[in-house]
Amino acid sequence: MPTRVFGERELELLREVLRSGNLSSLGGGTMTSRFEAEFARALGAKHGVAMNAAMSVLHASVAAAGAGAGTEVICDPVCVFGAVATMYHNAVPVFVDIDPYTMNMDPEQIEAKISERTKAIVVTHLWGMPAPIDRIVEIAHRHGLIVIEDCAHALLATYKGKCVGTWGDIGSFSFQMSKQLGLGDGGMGVTNSDELAAALGLHGGAPTFTAVAHGLHWNYRMTEQTAAIGIAQLERAPAIMEELIAIARLYDQAVEGCPWLIPQRGPGDHQSTYHFWAAGFWGDKHGITRADFQRVLAEEGCGLTMGYTGMPAYKHPLLQERWGYPKGCPLDCPRYTGSGNRYPDGLCPVAEDVIPRIVLAYTFSEKEGHERAAEALRRAITRLS
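Above: the chain's sequence. Below: its structure in token form.
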């Protein structure tokens, strides 16, 4: 069953850190560099850069892409985090709609949103399901854009036999406690580019004032203790992913044959690692209301959630109320001359339709509970069909 285990292996590595007398990679600690190397190796990437949070990785990635005041970064509209990272660096998020069944960015709508101000694309592998990343990368690179993969949900997920996070220019992974590799907090950037690895490393280290690395940098360094736990947890990760996949299959079996509850679909040859099992509720097309579905789920004791945030990312108060830095930045930055900083209703109509339909089961808990929930879901479908 996928439960958090922190045992003797973690203690062994933590004791090694404590015995070294150095709790930081700055000044001689080696555990963080070991974690970076082992994580990159597990994904098939050249470089890993450990940081204190995945949001730090996303921010550093946006910075490395050359985004800033007066520029744009393309984001998907379900999760707000790519937009937040964009705004951290004074750039404007521009949203591309999703496919209704993959729930991921629709590559066929990207080019219409690219302008002379665009610097990067942040694409989320939502719930652990790979986006059609080969097509997204092809479009981006044709226009000279950096692709940042948000893999917070998708540890060891693969597309066409290759781990997500290694298709684009930078992959960002989250180690927040709810994620598949839970370290309390933490994040990792991976890249095959020496140049981008150096740029990320400036922020994963300490602010520097040398002529070689001039510029404004952040102190997003990971501690040696977190890295030690990360090495031990990474060793367990493949087995945990198999357990999450097995749990997702329980729900797939529960909805099999149901025409109005459709599991999230992936593109081509893929393997999700199911941070969540997700499905779309299309009961209104079959005479079943959302309220009836939620009522019957509750009566059957099925704790699935529905609707996620209930709104696309651009309806978040952060964007609607235009929060940010002084003088209107980033959304109303005087250096910005585009029109992508307006977020009206209907901007991403598919996302606006699909988000309230999203049914979710958080997979990282005991399998026995999921067996009961899947059976309850099956009963609910039978009652309503």
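The chain has eleven helices and 14 strands.
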